[in-house]
Amino acid sequence: MAQEIERVLEEEPLVSEPSTFSLCHSEGARATEESLKIAYKLKEQFPEEVIEIKEFRGQVSVIVRPSRIKEILRWLKDQQGFNHLQDLCGVDYSPEKPRFEIVYNLYSIWRRLHIRVRAKVNEETPEIDSVTDLWEGANWHERECFDMFGIRFIGHPDLRRIFMPEDWNGYPLRKDYPLKGKELWRGFREIIESSSVEENK
Question: Where are any strands of DSSP class E within 57-200?
């Protein structure tokens, strides 16, 4: 097999013209560089709020304080063209302090750039401003984050569970949540009991 590969490379050297891979790589490098420039512009705009800027494998993240999250995201949307909220999710870093992190994945459709904004909140008051007035699509993302992690989004128009029943006990994606759940949900008990009654008739 190795000899066959060497033979093909000798007959058809891969230096005649730029490959699709090299073109994609250069485009990715350009996007990373542009996103980094925007991250440092953000730090200039909000010097007290930006804690750290990170770049890993072409992905640029900005860690910020939560107090002015809406202003930060509005600036990225209005001034830098990040018009698409790709995703919003929560992370539980227990036992670290602060314990929770809200992650905003932003994309500029017209500039083809991606940037990630991360805001940490503590366990005692796990809350942050809602951004549903910036992106309507944040509505369900924030509800999912609330449902799974118990993080509250201040100003959300309809903050309630989206996957779990309203009377569910606890938040399933927290690290201290039991793998088998805390107890059998009341709704399941009712189904089991009603099924037993039907079988005994």
Answer: 59-64, 84-92, 100-108, 113-121, 127-129, 152-154
Domain tally, the chain: 1
Per-residue pLDDT tens for 155-174? 999 999 999 988 888 999 99
Angle between the 69-80 and 20-45 helix axes, to the nearest 10 degrees? 130
What pTM, to 2 d.p., does this model score?
A: 0.80
**CATH label of the domain that carries residue 121:** 3.30.460.80
Strands 152-154 and 50-56: unpaired
CA distance 16 to 146: 54
Kindly give the pairing relationship between strand 59-64 and strand 113-121.
parallel
Please tell me what DSSP assigns to residue 6. Answer: H
